[in-house]
Structure prediction request, 337 residues.
Amino acid sequence: MPALRSWLSRAQRLATCASVMPLVFALLLAPAASAHDTGVASIVLQENAPNQFLLQVKLPENIEPEPPGVPASCQVTAGGSRTLPSRNRLDIWALSCMGPVAAGEGIDFPWRREAVAVQATLLDGSERTFFINISERGSKLTFDEMRETARPMWQTLEDYFTLGVEHILSGWDHLAFVLALCLIASGRHLVALVTAFTVGHSLTLALAVIGWVNVPIPAVEACIALSIAFVAREVLRPSPGKNRGVPIALLFGLLHGLGFASALNEIGFRQGELLAGLVAFNIGVEAGQLLFVCLVLALALLVRPLAFPLQARAATACLLGALGMFWTIERVASFAV
Prediction:
């Protein structure tokens, strides 16, 4: 019987460790280069003459530079390409149409992206911003849409809310940081940590989008990665205090907010939609963050009857710390060369 109890105890510890590994391995296997990838193709479109357009397309460098699809009465030609910081590439395309196009015709964006953000300057000097969710409506932007002057507010809120949720849930570095916070504390203490992080990144997100704060994004990304290693170290410190980690969560929240803002600034806002888009994006980020925290807490409840061992918590923190240092070194190297 003692031998059986010993074997069962070891099996419980292994099962507990295994239960947290899917989250950790998902973070470890995530491509570091895509930690702030919004999944959005960013396009600047300028009408230089009637039905004559210049397209500047910003994409990750690992995506093939395919030409956009155009109506039969139009032609598209390549105008060059150059590499941008943070592993992005800028492709330039010239679009020329022979006279007015038929109703419903437009530009089809072929790149493997979840959405397309278009900032258009029309011939009359007016500016438009479009956010196209490809999964919902396809990837075409019609010429009729380009000349629309207004769209329903609910559509603006839905677009930016969805973008916020997708950005936090695909931002592996943000998720790694929140997971480390969940390892530091539980109950009210965890609520305090997450609230401090939320206050911090909401503040700098708003300030950076408005334009009051401007920090080089490559340096911000490297510091965000370093914040993961720092908080992972906090997990391993003995004798946690009542308010331990709250100032740190607030400070690093300010840093992560700059990362969120970089994603939002890539997409931009249609005239008169800045406040609504900013609020909806921030609420989307909070919703995605809350969903992830609930997932971690549900997992913790499942393993609680197994007497969650400190070894598993420490091992997870060490893996997160190693991941944070790996991302830090890679990101510093990417802009230091």
User: Anything to note?
Assistant: The longest strand covers residues 74-84. The beta strands are 40-49, 52-60, 74-84, 88-97, 106-108, 115-121, 127-133, 140-142. Residues 222 and 328 are 5 Å apart (CA to CA).
